Amino acid sequence: MTHETPHYAPGNHPTTTHAGWGAGEPHLLISRGDEHFVHHLTADLTRIGSDGGCDVLVADTALLHATILHDDNDEYVLTLHGDGEMNARATTAGDAVGEHSEILRTGARFTAGPWTFVFARAEFADHGRPYGGREGGELSDQPPQPMRPDYDAERGRAEDESGAQYEVKDG
User: Fold this and answer.
1) Among residues 59, 66, 102, 135, which is most buried (max CB within 10 A)?
2) Is 0.90 surpassed by the pTM of this model?
């Protein structure tokens, strides 16, 4: 079998916003008053709250105030378990009363207690609307975009290399 590059009409080359698994250095910019810090999202589940077991430990919030799940589509999904504001009209997450979720896009803002969080990810890896989003023309003709990569396979390769999927490694 030979692999050939498809031939496209001049000026018609598919482009994509599908980057590799976890690409674009996704992170949170976190602030309260004069305090500022950055938390890089490197795990598939990030817990935010005042409990010592949380990945992002912030005072004056619920023990588990929010979670961010890196899902199978390489999206980062925020679920607020405590009071807070979100960018978008939240959707109910599961059966838990008071829990709301949204897919985070670059610039998405949410709050937990006195803290403000802003999600950031390099534009090439943010899977939102391609070609400039609404500025690119919500109803304009947009070139086709290839299917998303097989993120399960990409994630599996990364786990194989790190041994993260094994309960016991080298022992």
Assistant:
1) 66
2) no
At 18-49, the pLDDT tens digits run: 677 787 899 999 999 999 999 999 999 999 99
Residue 134 lies in a domain: no
The domain total for the chain is 1
What's phi and psi for 45, nearest 5 deg? -135, 125
Structure-model confidence comparison of residues 124 and 50, the more confident one: 50
Do the domain assignments include residue 34? no
Q: Which residues of 93-111 are buried (b: 16+ CB within 10 A; e: fewer)?
A: beeeeebbbbbbbeebebb
In degrees, to the nearest 5, what angle opens at C-alpha 77 toward C-alphas 74 and 81?
A: 155
Which CATH number fits the domain that encloses residue 78? Answer: 2.60.200.20
What is the residue range of 97's domain?
42-123
CA-closest candidate to residue 41, choices 73, 20, 74, 70: 70
